[in-house]
Recover the amino acids of this structure.
DNA sequence: CTGTTAGCGCCTTCAT
DNA sequence: ATGAAGGCGCTAACAG
């Protein structure tokens, strides 16, 4: 019953080479004759070798990894940073984490182009603009693996994207909104963060699609882009509320929730349904206070873990884990998980 | 910045003993003088030792583990079995999985009492009855670790419970139902599986609590206990629908979903909101078909993984993982994860 | 280009 | 009651 475990050693024996060579082929490392590569690959498939991820994580790794994350007062990324720090102790990677203005395309492109040759991989939240795409392709071309987080650049040759399907996440928000605002007539607004980020745009598109499909009695409007800045978000939402007497729903597709909550605390239509993204002190408090009604969440610990796994994993392999994209979690007041600290 | 990792070796040096002895203390194994135990414990806390779960999983384990799961046509447990099989290849444990009528208290108690002395641990879904409690206490007393899954027996001395908080899960279902049936008047029904299972009872209690709090216009009734049997569930739901013209919501707290779906296919009030538990072919199809509107889910892979971890983990330690109880996941049509196969 | 060696952190024999 | 030695599966230095 217990399926025979195939080890690198077995493959090596069958292929008539050493474990090291198999390892090289497995990880697409240079320095193996094409002929040998084929022999190893043949053995690999004929035996049905499957790597043991656990063993890989405990084995001494090495190399430098650069992590470039947005820096401006953003609780979600603060959390992500903490998760990376947690994972750091497990790997022996030389992790260099930098917070920067990753929402500015030229800055991000410059940062990417400046990454050391020593670097084995770069992990970042990618803006989907030409210069960033170019920088990513350049890195991959020279052998530095690029892993995108949360927001993807599908066109670029990045080795992996870690995050959930933002379009589906938007649809999820839309479906919840459709239920929350059922039998109502009025206006639903969407507030995004950045227009150069695929994730916010995709979320908005998915949201709109569902509302359009299912809620003929709702009018959908744009509340603008708050650039994830609480102050700007507060202004935008305050204006929105003032100008939209029949507002029944608000979807906050980006960050800046603190500002949204502040604006709503001053003036909010009774019965307004609010849906946001990511669990932070702010969204958590908003859920508990009944100000937000649902939050769409992706697990930051899982993001950090999979991102580092992707750094180690050979590019020949498939998606970033058990099931590819991350789960789209729906969190309401009732199933709020305990706080991290 | 990188916190110094404390290894067993470090603890051993400080305590003036060998790694083996530290390991014995760590895992509450016999054969260490009380005096020595204290010395090791002192070193343990003063250094702030934290075990490396990864290394533990790769290290050669051993011993026999009995797994007793309900057998009667239950897709959720079929899934769980598959996950245990997946995990089996990672550990070197001698896993003996038996499907049985775990919903019958005498049978379960007998099975528990019959577990081999060789067995290092027993993993099971516990009925909360006196004979089962007694059997569990007896096992723990003789040193066989008992881990309860999905449904707990808080009174018994089991080493760990792996699953989510069923009361909170029920509240979650209740909150969703409150939204779905917002502004409606009518009847909401609850269908449970077994009355001897804590999980179903707790879910029902949580559900009722929220409906009572938030929906003064809804009447709540019991649809009965289907013993997780699809046929019985079908009959109960058909009767329910026939006798309750103003039915607006149905909460299926147990299994037997196939029967529920069948009954609703024949006759269902328009706009009926249905909430069930666990992702299986049946609930998945029901969500896609718009028959069910939400499903409350706990991750089976996570259950299997944590249960086996609990087998290995010393009893001195805390909860069963990163965060204790499992996450209560809300799944709707829009965030349905890809099927396992 | 390829093989040998050593080691990650823990657990388990086996010996003492 | 304790210690020493070996191995889990993989990766990475260092040789050849």
């Amino acid at each position: 019953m217990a399926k025979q475990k195939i080890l690198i050693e077995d493959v090596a024996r069958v292929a008539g080479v050493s474990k090291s060579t198999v390892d090289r082929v497995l990880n697409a490392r240079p320095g193996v004759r094409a002929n040998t590569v084929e022999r190893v690959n043949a053995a690999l498939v004929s035996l049905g070798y499957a790597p043991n991820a656990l063993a890989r994580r405990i084995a001494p790794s090495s190399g430098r990894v650069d992590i470039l994350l947005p820096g401006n007062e953003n609780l979600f990324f603060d959390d992500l940073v903490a998760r990376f720090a947690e994972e750091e102790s497990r790997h022996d990677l030389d992790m260099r984490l930098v917070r920067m203005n990753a929402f500015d395309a030229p800055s991000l492109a410059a940062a990417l182009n400046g990454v050391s040759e020593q670097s084995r991989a770069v992990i970042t939240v990618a803006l989907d603009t030409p210069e960033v795409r170019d920088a990513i392709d350049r890195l991959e071309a020279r052998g530095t693996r690029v892993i995108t987080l949360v927001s993807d650049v599908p066109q670029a040759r990045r080795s992996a994207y870690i995050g959930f399907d933002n379009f589906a996440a938007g649809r999820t928000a839309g479906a919840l909104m459709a239920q929350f605002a059922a039998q109502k007539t009025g206006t639903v607004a969407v507030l995004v963060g950045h227009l150069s980020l695929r994730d916010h745009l995709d979320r908005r598109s998915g949201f709109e699609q569902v509302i359009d499909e299912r809620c003929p009695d709702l009018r959908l409007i744009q509340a603008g882009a708050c650039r994830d800045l609480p102050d700007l978000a507060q202004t935008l939402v305050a204006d929105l509320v003032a100008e939209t007497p029949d507002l029944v729903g608000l979807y906050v597709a980006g960050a800046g929730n603190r500002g949204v909550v502040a604006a709503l605390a001053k003036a909010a239509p009774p019965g307004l349904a609010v849906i946001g993204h990511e669990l932070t002190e702010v969204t958590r408090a908003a859920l508990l206070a009944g100000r937000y009604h649902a939050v769409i969440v992706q697990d930051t610990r899982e993001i950090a873990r999979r991102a580092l796994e992707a750094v180690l994993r050979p590019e020949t392999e498939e998606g970033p884990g058990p099931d590819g994209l991350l789960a789209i979690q729906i969190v309401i007041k009732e199933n709020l998980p305990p706080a991290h600290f």
